[in-house]
Structure to design on (536 residues):
């Protein structure tokens, strides 16, 4: 394919090696160089998702990468999103919209259609951006999947992208992973692998030929001891290690599913005492847990993700988060007795908050007449709010603006921003917020409904809402926390923490680490952008 744009691909020796963060950092570096850049991930499997201005659903990591690139997140940067749904397999989101639920074999049979979505999205991006930084998924050397995959070497071949392979030295075996990946991709049988003949222009290259360099991530040892290994892997593979990134406990950015939970340990012996304890219930199918990142920056807050009964029962705030399978997670709470711990926290005066699926769980019952999530037609909720939810076949995905219509908090008149992702219709004692669902036609903003929609419910110290990202709103978050501070006899915080400034600082800090640890000039030469080297 003769691309209209330049592309660079970041692949990994496995999942969780840092690909997402490196793509975000490179997008910020290129943006700062004046390059019009966009991220791209053909297929993501994640339960953290974001709603674009088009009303489409994409991976949360790609939204962060777009933010780093200084562009509005859009459907095309993540055309295929897979969301694990338990017994139903995966929910397949194509071009931002739910297509269907599929088991693995069904999805592989669907490969050609998914590939068309991938290539069409990339073609649209290539008409608008100078550089596209592409993220792979897992490892490109999963030899049992090479003929089916649409996210690693299939994309490298289609876009003719040079690939930089990232390995996590903290997991051990990084040099074996580098060497093994290159050797497995040298297999001559890979030369003819392509989808719908789209590989024909690059048939003379094996997949290993696309790998141009390595990056070692999460290093925390003595560089002098590491250097011989760097030279040896270059000798053995003919490819240099162009960077060694330090192990950073937390760069303050959204991460992929599961990784971010590691930074919230049960015990932090050297951390100053925090006056307010927030516990997010760690559901089996927890989704959009990045909703609660802003609390991490509140100086008097301790934030835990936990299933520990004592943690929940002694928390000042208990949050039941979103879930990809609300019914199964509600049953999980009951089977483990966590429902009783939540009720005990409520009885002790703790604030109980439900977001999306968690909001549904707080009600009297959840009905699933169409078997959207399980075989249970109806399940009793926690009974803390006077609402009922019916799960429906159609998913609501929209950015929203909201106004508070309850007197629960003292917040100014500024509109709240967030987004909805849910398949349920909730009725009953609704009326915590008024929301407008928004979408864009070209560059024009339009409301999806001429009338305002009521959202959310509250009863005493319990409340819930469908609005994801609600805690990103600084004034609202501060008002909610001040109500907790008042209950505990703590001083109010007059000026809210500026979460968005912290995020911007974190992106810039990470880009700075990347610039100091990786040979960016090598990358610019790969992209044919030698003219930018003088700007460093």
């Amino acid at each position: 394919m003769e691309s209209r744009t330049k592309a660079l691909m970041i692949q990994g020796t496995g999942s969780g090696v840092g690909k997402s963060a490196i793509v975000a950092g490179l997008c910020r570096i290129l943006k700062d160089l004046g390059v019009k850049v966009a991220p791209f991930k053909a297929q993501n499997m994640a339960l953290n998702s974001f709603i674009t201005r088009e009303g489409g659903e994409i991976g949360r990591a790609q939204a962060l990468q777009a933010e780093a690139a200084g562009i509005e997140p859009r459907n095309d940067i993540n055309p295929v999103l897979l969301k694990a749904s338990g017994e139903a397999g995966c929910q397949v989101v194509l071009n931002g919209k739910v297509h269907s639920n599929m088991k693995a074999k069904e999805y592989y049979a669907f490969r050609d259609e998914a590939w068309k979505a991938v290539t069409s999205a990339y073609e649209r991006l290539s008409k608008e951006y100078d550089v596209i930084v592409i993220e792979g998924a897992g490892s490109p050397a999963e030899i049992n999947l090479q003929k089916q995959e649409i996210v690693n070497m299939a994309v490298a071949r289609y876009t003719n992208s040079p690939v930089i392979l990232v390995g996590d030295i903290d997991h051990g075996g990084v040099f074996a992973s580098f060497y093994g990946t290159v050797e497995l991709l040298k297999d001559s049988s890979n030369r003819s692998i392509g989808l719908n003949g789209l590989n024909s222009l690059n048939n003379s290259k094996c997949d290993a030929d696309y790998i141009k360099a390595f990056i070692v991530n999460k290093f925390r040892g003595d560089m002098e001891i590491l250097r011989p290994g760097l030279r040896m892997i270059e000798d053995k593979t003919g490819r240099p290690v162009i960077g060694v990134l330090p192990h950073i406990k937390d760069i303050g950015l959204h991460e992929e599913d599961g990784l971010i939970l590691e930074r919230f340990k049960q015990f932090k012996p050297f951390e100053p005492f925090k006056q307010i304890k927030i516990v997010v219930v760690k559901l089996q199918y927890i989704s959009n847990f990045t909703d609660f990142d802003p609390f991490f920056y509140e100086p008097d807050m301790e934030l835990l993700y936990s299933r520990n009964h004592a943690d929940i029962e002694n928390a000042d705030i208990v949050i039941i988060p979103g879930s990809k399978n609300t019914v199964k997670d509600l049953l999980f709470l009951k089977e483990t007795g966590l429902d009783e711990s939540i009720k005990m926290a409520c009885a002790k005066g703790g604030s109980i908050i439900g977001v999306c699926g968690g909001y549904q769980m707080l009600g009297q019952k959840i009905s699933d007449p169409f078997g959207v999530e399980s075989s249970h037609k109806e399940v009793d909720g926690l009974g803390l709010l006077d609402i009922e939810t019916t799960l429906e076949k159609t998913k609501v995905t929209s950015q929203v603006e909201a106004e508070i219509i309850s007197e629960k908090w003292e917040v100014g008149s500024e509109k709240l921003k967030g987004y909805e992702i849910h398949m349920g219709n909730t009725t009953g004692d609704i009326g915590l917020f008024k929301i407008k669902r928004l979408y864009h036609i070209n560059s024009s903003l339009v409301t999806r409904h001429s009338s305002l929609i009521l959202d959310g419910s509250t009863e005493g110290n319990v409340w819930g809402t469908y609005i994801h990202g609600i805690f990103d709103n600084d004034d609202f978050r501060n008002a909610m926390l001040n109500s907790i501070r008042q209950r505990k006899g703590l001083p109010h915080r007059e000026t809210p923490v500026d979460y968005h400034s912290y995020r911007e600082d974190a992106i810039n800090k990470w880009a700075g680490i990347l610039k100091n640890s990786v040979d960016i000039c090598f990358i610019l030469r790969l992209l044919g952008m030698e003219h930018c080297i003088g700007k460093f």
User: Anything to note?
Assistant: Residues 192-201, 257-270 have pLDDT under 50 and may be disordered. Residues 276-489 form a domain with the Rossmann fold fold (CATH 3.40.50.880).
